[in-house]
Each structure stands twice: as C-alpha cells, then as structure tokens.
Amino acid sequence: MRKPVGQYLLSENESNPVWKDLVDAFEMCTMDIVSSSRKKYEQEECALIQKAVELHGGKAVIKCIFETIQGNCSWELFWLARAGVMEVESHLIALLDSDDEDELTSAVLGLLYFDNDKAWYLLHQLINGEHQVNLTQSPSWYFQEDLELISNPKAKKYLAMVLNT
C-alpha cells in the first residue's frame, strides 16, 4: 500500500499537466510516511490534491492516475478520498471485492472518509479476523491513524476495537 519516497519523481509523466500537478502531492504523502509527525502534513497534502482536482477535474485526475501508475494504484485513490474527491468513490467500491491486502485496506480506508456502510462492515471483519483476506500486520498498523482523523462516531468505536487487538 505505501509507496517508496521518490517513486513519483521516477514515474513522472512530463507530457501530462495533470500528473505534474499531482507529483508534489503524492511525493509529500510518501515523505510524510517516514516522518515522525505525519499528521501535520495532512492538510497540505490534501490541499495539493484538491488544487489539482480544481484545475483539471476529478475524472481527469483519476484517469491520469490510472494511465501513469503501473499496477496497483489503490493507495493514490485512497489519498484522493482522504482529500474529499467524491469522484473516486466508485473506483474504491470496485476494490472492496479484491483479495489483495493492499487494495482492500486502501479501499476500505478511503471509503470510511465517505461513511460508506460496506466499508465499515469490512473494517469490522478485518479487525476481528473474519474476512477472507488476512492482515499481515496488526489492525492498528493499517487503521489507527485514519480512524483518529475521521470525525465520525463510528470511527471512535472502531478505533477502540483496533487499540484493543
């Protein structure tokens, strides 16, 4: 799910103005992961993504991601959801049936920002080890940070579950 720092600069599609506007946002998201103070970057990362969406439109941004990223782009789609880009919802819903751990957890987390009922249900299954996809890390590794950020009473309930596993 997590991308290495510098990956986006290496895959930069210089001929695509949409990608040029996304590179900095996604690079910041990856640098943020290795930072000890990840939360302080949340607003800036999301603002950069939102700016790209305002300039080019959500559909164009999503299309650019699919054209530029080779393979699994669920992490990038998750970040669009985290930034509030509603156009990504259907793409994340399509990933809920994935048997790939990264795709599934990215989709669930992204959809939690949209208060998607199926995502909450799958989160419950994943936390309790009841899903066909078995997590290779503890549930807190996948879900704690985002559950702390989501301002929804359900998130607080599931955060308590994650912290008790």
Output the keywords:
single chain, mainly alpha
- Please report the distance between the alpha carbons of the first and last residues: 21 Å
Helix content: 55-70%
Strand elements, count: 0
Shape: globular
Provide the β-strand percentage band: under 5%
Give the helix tally: 10
Low-confidence stretches: none
Mean pLDDT: 85
Largest sheet: none
- Compressed to H and E, one letter per element, the order equals HHHHHHHHHH
What class, by secondary structure content? mainly alpha
Rg calculated over all Cα atoms: 15 Å
Written description of the protein model:
- The protein has 165 residues and is mostly helical.
- It has ten helices and no strands.
- It is globular.
- The model has no long low-confidence stretch (mean pLDDT 85).
Topology:
Blueprint: H1 7-10, H2 17-33, H3 42-56, H4 58-68, H5 74-82, H6 89-95, H7 101-112, H8 117-127, H9 139-149, H10 153-163
Short description:
With 165 residues, the chain is mostly helical. Helices cover 65% and strands 0% of the residues. The protein has helices spanning 7-10, 17-33, 42-56, 58-68, 74-82, 89-95, 101-112, 117-127, 139-149, 153-163.
